[in-house]
Specification:
Elements: H1 17-25, H2 31-35, E1 41-44, E2 59-66, E3 71-74, E4 80-87, E5 92-98, H3 103-106, E6 112-121, E7 127-130, E8 133-136, E9 143-146, H4 155-169, H5 179-184, H6 190-198, H7 203-233, H8 245-251, H9 258-272, E10 278-283, H10 289-302, E11 306-311, H11 314-327, E12 335-338, H12 344-356, E13 361-365, H13 366-370, E14 378-385, H14 391-397, E15 405-410, H15 416-422, E16 427-431, E17 442-446, H16 451-463, E18 467-471, H17 482-497, E19 505-508, H18 514-525, E20 531-534, E21 547-552, H19 560-567, E22 578-582, H20 588-599, H21 603-619, H22 639-655, H23 665-676
The structure holds adenosine-5'-diphosphate (ADP) and magnesium ion (MG).
Adenosine-5'-diphosphate binds near residues 254, 257 and 435.
């Protein structure tokens, strides 16, 4: 049987080359594309008003009887327009149509119609509708679909094509969902849902149809994401046999939080199994993800294997390197650092050590470790990422060694709905607890005339031994970030020579040589400077527990999650920390955003709000890929359906890992089509 979903739309009656071109511009090539080109919105012709009560200049529906046949009238410009009158029994309105000779035949005397358009009242008090849409009252559809149209195709033409498709092909529409699911969730059949989403009888029908179609979309998506994992399950991995966590804990300078202990044991349990771990470690800034990574690496090495840790930036890689060197001192564990600025000669030496197995732990930037680094026995790969990698990019990771265990540490908390999509193929451990003794960071948002006060506050704190970050004003970016550098340099010069002439300032920006950056960071860490004037290069992961103040200029230019991440640079020690957001923007959204930050330190809540304010596309910025676009579901409103779809997808794949059973066949087809675009 021919699959009607993949049938070319030119096969439909009434669609020739020109129409087909219009459809192609809308991304519609097959009947399936057409049927899933859902209405943008609906016109409700149900709520009719009387002529008298119709609000001025607002689109409304009026039920009225045509009083006389439309008469042609020549306009001054020589065009023909048609005019007639209609009454609802009380009021009368004039109806005027341009360029539509069909009205003469359509609008018959004494027949009742629904007119849909804007009412205008002229100076003499007469009511008029200009070119209203109309339909015979006795047979009118009360809800009309409105499609995104283009120059070649009107919404009406699209509706017509959809109707043709539904009428001529509906008996060929095979149900895509297994019948037990339809029963369980009381879903509409596919056939009914498609008819109802395009030509609904009432609002309830739209709701039910949407529910069914959203469910199907999310189920397919989850099946796709989860089946990335199914293939994995088959393969064996490096199994951890001995748990050395206790030993690690005795080296760690603090008591691990309960959340850290739980995360470590969840991971170790995964790593004891015969299939590789695939896990996401989610935790707010400062929740101590590094310690979890350290515990796992310690375990891995003590079991005789190697591991790799990949960081998004050099500064961060170096910081991790130093942390681990300190933690693992005198343990016989050999740690190497591999980044873009490692000299060619050293790179070669280090890579030799990695290949021979002499290096136990390799820490570096992502690109360097993934390119041509060959391990002897890499059992664990940890990425400390900025939620930049999608499902597909992660696949590249697996090529390191024979299916190592994989742990992804997300630097930013992500709302659960989004993590099910982006990290849907991973199990999740959450650090929902901060190390003991942390105080909430006090956050305020102030306008720029507070600068003087802020500067004196900083000076006072510095005298008490505190350190401070000042994140520079954002400037328009240019290609090499020159403007960014300039603004940071200028600001640094200004502060250093005026208000802060008596305290120690340092400058850090992205265009500095790596060596210089490291020197600056190290000096600041060692307490050799009081104030670090910097650009957003400090955003990710930098850990200087003694820094207790962060000032962020032009706070309105940053995303909420980014601000939260920046703020996470402080609040790492025992003293009270402060975050000062400076912004002169008065508009409501800016205020709302900054208020959220002032009112909570909970990264998950902030992420939810950020998602609400920006939408999922912007949440990740343009860099996020590997995310199929959704036609009907919304992560904002459909989270409950998403969770249900997730559970069902898991159940289906458990029983039928490759979707080979007859009842899952149509799902499998849909799935291949969905993921064909992104892989
Ligand atoms: P993040 O989750 O943001 O990566 P880090 O791993 O950088 O957080 O940890 C933040 C700070 O908390 C570091 O200074 C680290 O040494 C400290 N820390 C981590 N775990 C604990 C703990 N259990 N008790 C006290 N301090 C801890
Ligand atoms: Mg970190």
């Amino acid at each position: 049987m021919q699959d009607i979903f993949t049938t070319d739309i030119r096969f439909l009656k009434g669609i020739g080359e020109k129409r087909a071109e219009g459809f192609r511009k809308l991304g519609i090539e097959t009947v399936g594309d057409l049927l899933s080109f859902y209405p943008r919105t609906y016109e409700n012709w149900n709520d009719t008003v009387s002529v008298k009560e119709a609000p001025e200049d607002t689109i409304t529906a009026i039920k009225a009887i045509v009083i006389s046949r439309p008469m042609p009238i020549k306009t001054r410009s020589g065009k023909i327009m048609y005019r007639t009158c209609a009454t609802d029994g009380v009021g009368i309105m004039t109806l005027t149509f341009f360029n539509n000779r069909f009205v003469v035949n359509d609008l018959k005397e004494d027949e009742e119609f629904i007119f849909f358009g804007k009412i205008k009242t002229n100076d003499l008090g007469a009511k008029e509708m200009l070119s209203p849409k109309y339909e015979k009252a006795s047979t009118a559809a009360y809800i009309h679909p409105v499609y995104s149209q283009n120059a070649l195709l009107s919404s009406k033409a699209i509706a017509k094509a959809v109707r043709t498709a539904l009428e001529s092909l509906s008996e060929k529409l095979t149900e895509t969902l297994p019948s037990d699911q339809i029963m369980k969730y009381r879903l509409m059949s596919l056939k009914d849902a498609l008819r109802s989403i395009h030509f609904p009888k009432d609002e309830n029908e739209i709701k039910s149809a949407r529910r069914r179609l959203i469910y199907e979309e999310l189920l397919t998506l989850q099946l796709g994401i989860l089946s990335h994992g199914t293939a994995e399950k088959e393969k064996t991995a490096y199994r951890i046999t001995n748990d050395h966590t206790k030993q690690f804990m005795s080296r760690f300078p603090f008591e691990l939080t309960n959340a850290q202990k739980r995360a470590v044991s969840e991971c170790v349990n995964d790593m004891k199994l015969s299939s590789p771990m695939r896990r996401l470690l989610q935790g707010d800034v400062g929740s101590g993800k590094t310690a979890v990574a350290a515990a796992l690496m310690y375990n891995t090495v003590k079991n005789g294997f190697q591991c790799a840790l990949m960081a998004p930036t050099e500064v961060l890689a170096r910081q991790h390197f130093e942390t681990f060197q300190y933690l693992f001192r005198e343990s016989g564990i050999n740690i190497e650092l591999l980044t873009g600025s490692t000299t060619a000669k050293n790179k070669r030496l280090i890579k030799e050590k990695i290949m021979s197995g002499e290096a136990d732990i390799v820490i570096g930037t992502h690109a360097v470790i993934t390119s041509d680094t060959v391990f002897r026995c890499c059992a664990l790969v940890i990425t400390d990422e900025q939620h930049r990698f999608g499902v597909n990019q992660r696949a590249a990771l697996k090529d390191k060694g024979e299916n190592p265990h994989v742990l992804v540490m997300s630097a930013t908390p992500i709302p659960r709905t989004l993590s099910l999509i982006i990290y849907g193929d991973l199990s999740i451990s959450v650090l929902d607890e901060k190390p003991k003794g942390r105080k909430e960071i006090k956050t305020v948002a102030v306008p720029s005339y507070y600068h003087e006060r802020i500067y004196s506050f900083i000076k006072k704190e510095v005298r008490a031994g505190n350190q401070c970050y000042i994140v520079c004003p954002m400037v328009e970016e240019n290609e090499e970030g020159v403007a960014d550098r300039k603004s940071a340099e200028e600001y640094y010069e200004l502060l250093r020579t005026t208000v802060f002439s008596d305290i120690r300032c340092l400058l850090l920006h992205g265009q500095m040589k790596q060596k210089k950056k490291d020197e600056v960071m190290q000096a600041f860490k060692n307490g050799d400077a009081d104030v670090l004037i910097c650009t957003v290069v400090i955003e990710v992961g930098i850990d200087v527990p003694n820094a207790g103040i962060i000032v962020i200029e032009n706070a309105e230019c940053f995303g909420l999650s980014q601000l939260h991440q920046l703020r996470g640079r402080v609040g790492r020690g025992e003293r009270q920390s402060h975050c000062i957001l400076i912004s002169d923007k008065e508009n409501e959204t800016t205020k709302k955003r900054l208020d959220i930050l002032c009112s909570t330190n909970d990264g998950f809540r902030i992420a939810e709000e950020d998602l609400k304010l920006r939408g999922p596309g912007d949440f990740f910025g343009s860099r996020q890929s590997g995310l199929p676009t959704m036609k009907i579901a919304s992560l904002m409103t459909d989270s409950r359906i998403l969770y249900a779809a997730r559970d069902e997808a898991q159940r289906i794949l458990e029983a039928d890992p490759y979707l080979e059973k007859e009842e899952n066949k149509t799902l499998k087809n849909k799935l291949s089509a969905l993921f064909a675009d992104i892989s």
